[in-house]
């Protein structure tokens, strides 16, 4: 019997045990809230159970694809997003935190598709082939999307204004 023929509770327990933490991390990186990420993971695994006969051998990219579509459906239902701007007053521009804020801000200015391919490859550490499965496109298309997204992100980071130094040097008050 093939693996597909034996997709019962034991198979599901194994998939859940192996990939639940990965799906939660995927959700946290996109929602910035653990509770929302855990709820997303529950929905993803409900879909996986219901469609267990369709789940490919390489399970994780398929699960990420389900999560991606569920998040897209939520975003469509919520209307336009509002993102609070981080308070960066007094932050030393040479600190790694400031650089991270710059990258996050630039990433937020990219299209959803650009953000997703970059996150899949950088954060989730998927290959372009695995990212293609998540995105529902071919491997070549994923490589092209990744290249273009990286180029657009680099352009945004190059265009950022020079940070204002808050350091006072010399002199008296």
Automatic annotation (TrEMBL):
The keyword Transcription regulation applies. Pfam families: Sigma70_r2, Sigma70_r4_2. Signal peptide: none annotated. The keyword Transcription applies. GO terms for cellular component: DNA-directed RNA polymerase complex. Residues 16-76 form the RNA polymerase sigma-70 region domain. This is DNA-directed RNA polymerase sigma-70 factor. It comes from Dactylosporangium sucinum.
């Amino acid at each position: 019997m093939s693996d597909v023929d034996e997709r019962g509770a034991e198979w599901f327990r194994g998939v859940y045990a192996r990939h639940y933490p990965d799906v939660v991390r995927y959700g946290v990186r996109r929602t910035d809230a653990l509770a929302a990420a855990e709820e997303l993971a529950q929905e993803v695994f409900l879909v996986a159970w219901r469609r267990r006969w369709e789940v490919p051998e390489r399970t994780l990219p398929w699960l990420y694809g389900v999560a991606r579509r569920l998040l897209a459906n939520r975003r469509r239902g919520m209307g336009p997003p509002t993102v609070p701007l981080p308070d960066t007053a007094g932050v030393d521009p040479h600190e790694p935190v400031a650089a991270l804020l710059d990258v996050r801000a630039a990433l937020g200015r990219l299209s959803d598709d650009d953000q997703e391919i970059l996150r899949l490859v950088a954060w989730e550490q998927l290959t372009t082939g695995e990212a293609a499965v998540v995105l529902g496109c071919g491997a070549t298309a994923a490589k092209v999307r990744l290249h273009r997204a990286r180029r657009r992100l680099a352009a945004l980071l190059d265009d950022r204004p020079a940070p204002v130094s808050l350091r006072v040097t010399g002199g008296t008050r």
